[in-house]
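Re: the 279-residue chain
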Amino acid sequence: MSEGSLQLQRMVLGIEYDGSHFFGWQWQAKLRSVQEVLQHALSKVANHPVTVICAGRTDTGVHALEQVVHFDTHSERTLHSWLLGGNANLPEDVRITWVKTGVGDFHARYSAIARFYRYVILNRPVKSALQPRQATWCVAPLDVGRMQQAAQFLVGNHDFSSFRSQGCQSKSPQRLLYFIEVSREMDRVIIDLSANAFLHHMVRNIAGVLMEIGKGAQPVAWTQHLLQVKDRKLGGVTASPCGLFLGGVYYPARYGLVKHPIFARLPADAKRFDGEGVV
């Protein structure tokens, strides 16, 4: 790609953000978005307008441990300059954590093999004063064993109609869930899950269902039943966005990006396009 005599270079960035005071990732007129502040910061460093493409859009109030984005530029800057200059122009609730040069046909969204989300539940009688928007608060004791057992019905290739928002615009409700694990760390219950892609509100709806099962309000097999009925109206309450984090994105090895350790849990067939010898 070129613009006149200037060669365009694709840059790839890792981004973390606290979504509490954003109206989601995507740019919206007159509303604060992660995309808006990031583009503004990078445009200052590039000295020309920059448009960033992300691996997966996040909703209002949703956070990211590692969002991956790319943009094209004809400005020559060192990786260090993009990192320091970008962060110097960002608000305190967004940070660029790493910068790399794009390899080949890399695309932040379309090159991804899997995405990892984490849902955090503060399970105690009292709300948090220190992190009120980084976890969903649940007073009722949650049985993590029941939640983990129920979650395993969701693993595999399924029609997730009961777990998508009614306004979801995806053409197909079919998604491949690679793994889901529910664990407890003291007073926090953590749901980790990875899929090839996610439907709108899919993780929050799964979290809402598992919380009802953990409370004992629904049987363990409720997740299996919801997959069979394919009806969102029977799927219970959508959990709060507060506890939801985009945790990481998995790309084929040829792009040279560091993989989050949690992706070691991916089954071998999920890596068939990875270029790491897995067929």
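Residues 140 and 233 are 24 Å apart (CA to CA).
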